[in-house]
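Lecture notes, continued. The same structure-token format from the folding unit now serves as the input rather than the output. Read the line below as a description of shape only.
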């Protein structure tokens, strides 16, 4: 199937690039109810017999991104490609170039950029992405957590995954009906439906990017001031 016949879903996430954890990202997004469109130079072997939407082309090319529906996408994930084949800084430079193209075409998109070298964070910030992720650093944190807090690995793996159909970490954007109420009332309502509230998120002051600042276990009397989100664990229902 050529990409001419690809049906672009509405409100999708664009994945730019492909690497050894891309397939798991696709599965997690789909399990969370987010349709996905993949953009990469060549259809990945893992998707050879898949009906998932794949656009073949240069991830940093405007025409390719437009074909992938960047103008109507709600989010974009820019992955580090050719890791191990190219120098780390070259990989990061290509990723940042793709992020710049995505942001220039659709400044309102919520973008997540994977970077390999922490020294390139300052360059990544110039691309106006909403999140920069150092995957190797996150893996190191997780391994240290598992070693220092024995038995926690199963719990952490459970809440970070949607595809296992068990408990999962989620966010809830509060609607206007909560304006003027307290986080205690919000948390009580979430507990009443069998889930576990953990924190709130408020918009940061940077108007050029969608930055969210979190507060874990806020005082119950904290007033709700929109926009606000709640971080909670959607618990597995017995």
């Amino acid at each position: 199937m050529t990409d001419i016949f690809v049906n672009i879903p509405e409100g999708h996430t664009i994945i730019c690039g492909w690497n050894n954890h891309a397939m798991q990202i696709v599965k997690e997004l789909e399990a969370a109810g987010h349709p996905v469109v993949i953009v990469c130079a060549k259809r990945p072997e893992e998707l050879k017999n898949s009906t998932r939407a794949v656009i073949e082309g240069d991830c940093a090319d405007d025409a390719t991104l437009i074909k992938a529906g960047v103008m109507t996408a709600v989010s974009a994930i820019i992955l580090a490609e050719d890791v191990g084949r190219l120098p780390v800084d070259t990989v990061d430079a290509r990723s940042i170039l793709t992020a710049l193209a995505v942001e220039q075409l659709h400044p309102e998109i919520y973008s997540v950029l994977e970077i390999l070298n922490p020294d390139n964070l300052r360059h990544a910030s110039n691309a106006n992405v909403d999140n920069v992720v150092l995957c190797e650093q996150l893996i190191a944190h997780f391994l240290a957590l598992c070693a220092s807090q024995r038995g926690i690995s199963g719990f952490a793996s459970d809440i970070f995954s949607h595809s296992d159909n068990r408990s999962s970490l989620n966010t809830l954007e509060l609607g206007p009906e909560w304006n003027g109420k307290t986080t205690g009332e919000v948390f009580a309502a979430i507990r009443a439906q069998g889930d576990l509230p953990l924190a709130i998120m408020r918009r940061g002051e940077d108007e050029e990017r969608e930055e969210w600042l979190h507060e874990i276990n806020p005082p119950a009397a904290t007033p709700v001031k929109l926009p606000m989100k709640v971080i909670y664990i959607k618990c597995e229902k017995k």
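Point for the exam: The chain has two domains: 3-133, 167-234.
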